[in-house]
């Protein structure tokens, strides 16, 4: 098993390392156990019979003589077998310890990988829930059995009607506007007004028989009307000219990301931005955002 004991590492001088190996061999200890024993005795923690106080490193000649006597003496066979057995045991213990250590490392890495995968799955679930929530709300608000499919069919029908209206030529006159032949012939305007409020006299008083009757001189109107001055929310569209889409639908229609559209919709100049980018719309519509209903309305302006 792994251990929580501190680990040390050192680079020894050749002479010091030779003495360590000799102490290890004579005491029958592994290298780590020999270092541990030496340090414990040095700091006064050792109560073992294996002590370095009486250990004297033999000279090279003495060591050669000792090995020669052991190898060629009566205990030659036992000595060699003992060395082999000791080496085998040390190697086996080192291999076991290394396997246990690396197994613990691998286990932690696998746990970390699983935690990362779990976090990714949780993010995907949250994203899917955000996508499904408005769809489920839209379905629950329908009073018919068609659900989203009926909404899609209705939208396609509206687009077909708009296409037909776009093919009708408009024939305005110099002093009046003929609505019977314009693309807005099926639409009815109510509470039409211009901003700012400084224009106190209404320019348009009524719509009678498809004609907009003048009630004041047109010279009072500005030469160019800024779209940001037009109170679009005051138009009540009852015909098929305007269409309404949510954020996801409009993003797909314009071919832009939802994040860009979401950021733009909260800005005051969204209508101007939409007008400048109406080439992105397949029909060239300008889009207005209603924050109360959280819906986008597309019109021909």
UniProtKB/TrEMBL annotation:
Per the record, the domain of life is Bacteria
Alphabetic keyword roster: Coiled coil, Plasmid
Coiled coil start-end = 104-168
Origin species, per record, is Allocoleopsis franciscana PCC 7113
Q: What is this protein called?
A: Uncharacterized protein
